[in-house]
Specification:
Layout (H helix, E strand, L loop, with lengths): L23 H13 L3 E5 L3 H6 L10 E4 L5 H14 L7 E7 L1 H5 L2 H10 L3 E7 L34 H6 L5 E6 L3 H12 L4 E7 L3 H4 L6 H10 L6 E4 L2 E4 L1 H4 L10 H5 L10 H25 L1
Parallel strand pairs: 1-2, 1-3, 3-4, 4-6, 5-6
Antiparallel strand pairs: 5-7, 7-8
Helix pairs in contact: 1-7, 3-5
Length: 300
Amino acid sequence: MVNVMDLPEEEYIYPGTRACAGCGMALIYRIALKALGSKTIVTVPASCLTVLHGMQGFCSTKISVYHTPFATTGASASGIRASLEDKGLDEEICVLAFAGDGGTTDIGIQALSGAAERGTNFIFACYDNEAYMNTGVQRSGSTPLGVRTTTTPEGKLGHKKNMPKILEAHGIPYVTTGISSYPLDLFEKFKKARDIFGTKYFHILSPCPPGWGYEPKDTILIGRLAVQTGFWPLYEVINGKFILSKPSSKYLDPSKRKPIEEYLSVQKRFKTLSAQEIEIYKTYINDMWQEIKKRIESQE
């Protein structure tokens, strides 16, 4: 396990970006770049991260960034990797694709799936703020049950897409979940992924103050509640072996989890949830953790 003293002092994002106050994505990006270092090339589709990077002709990072059309993140990462291999730089430079949930679970899934099927050697990190935040908070395939967005004003029907499981089904060597509220866990996972050959997939929950409806100062609190209520399990799947991450390990015991109402009630996007939908959430979380428990037991 890493500790805070292991974190590099070097910052790869300049201060004063155009990200919103309390942006979970900005924290995730900062941690990822600290872990991967200066010899990294990032490819990004249309997203909140393009806003963070700045207007055309400027960039808020100290590393090379390639902005690509919404649907082509996996393809652009594959092209960058092929170019590096041609130049003999493939072992030296890390390729990182960094996309939102719209550019991953919906519009970008085809190119990502193709890259994973080919076994392209890169990291794909989805920062999941659970809607199309950059264009006005429309629902995505990753929007949870009951969430109010501009395209689901009465609340979304159905649960969010299980993208980590979809990527795991591709047979790639590394799949993990994360959240910026547990930065050491996230940092360690990026460091680990850099040294694994093949396609590595991160699905990282990214609290969003304007889209979720909470005060910017509460981003870390919201993220911790997502984990502590069991809504967002932190885990790794390494060559098919499921490993529950330390921050989530105690929540195999349901008595250790906080009530899901503590997570839902502090976000305005959930304010129209009915009592029946809250019960559905409780069943959803219990079923998810039962599946995790069975999977861990089957490996023993």
